[in-house]
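# step 3/5: fold
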Amino acid sequence: MPQNVTIELPIAPRLNSGLAAARERNLEWMRRQALVMGDVAARRYIFSAVADLAAYSYPDAEEDDLDLAFDTMGWFFLFDDLFDVPESHEADEAVDVCKQLIEIVSHPWPRAVDHDAPLVRAFADIWRRSGMGMSAEWRSRAAHNWVDYLTGNLTEEMDRRTWVPKDFATRMRVGHRTLGLIPSLDLAERVGNFEIPQVIWHSSHLDSMRRAAVRAVKLINEVMSLENDDARGDPNLVHCLMRESDCSRQEAIRMAVTLVQAAVDQLGEQVSWIPQFCSRLRLTDAESEKVQRYAAAMFTWIRGSYDWSRNNGRYSPRTASALSSNVTGQLHPANLTPVAR
């Protein structure tokens, strides 16, 4: 069972002490946004534990900041599952929602607009709250990163309608965009109440660090979600490794685990150069501390994604057994808003 795969990580596990209370507030927010309607839908959403990822990935966030993190993580998975439609169907609703979301983040901040789709309204609320207290530069960068995530999802949908790339390198390149880790690291700044200076954020050194973090988290996600993908007939990087290395499933899983550990080692080496990086840029102590906090957020995300993946209901045997190529995704609106459908 992939959810039980052990990955040795040199990162201490952490968990936000406010998890239980934030989980309840998140469910109420989901209900207010008309994303989770009725008791059956609520039980399905609670069992998935998707919003709990925030407690693992933002262990120091408190109060409103923690709520923003929970709401964002919950929203991510509902949006992701909107693309999971029965075989031979096209995710037209998801494409339309995606276009509306791009419209929201592509306009000057903030922009109050009424939207019919609950996922769009909910995102507008998250987008408004995430910009509170942040600079115009941060908001511009965050908007760019959201657009890259959203257009990456459009790329995946077009690939489904034509042919899905089967090589590891291409799948990883697309996954770098659709994983959502870059916007999530922006959120780490927001809920941590700090900002990486704009020019520094664009440096090759920090870009390389982000790429290593994305690679690690993406591979963890692919291993842990393997049975779900198998049940739905969806592509997975483990499948790519099996084909390209002509190896068994278990051997490919072990290869993926090794690649996770290599990415973490690479990130660790890059982080060791941060003092010299900051010195050459003549950063102040305060600026250097922000860079270190940003690096720490990457490590926390890697460890958090692993620990959450092993404890959620989304990747459990129960969920995998209920999935197939002929049904909608676990958290597709058809399964969470039956009253409206």
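# step 4/5: annotate
The two ends are 35 Å apart (CA to CA).
# step 5/5: archive (pending)
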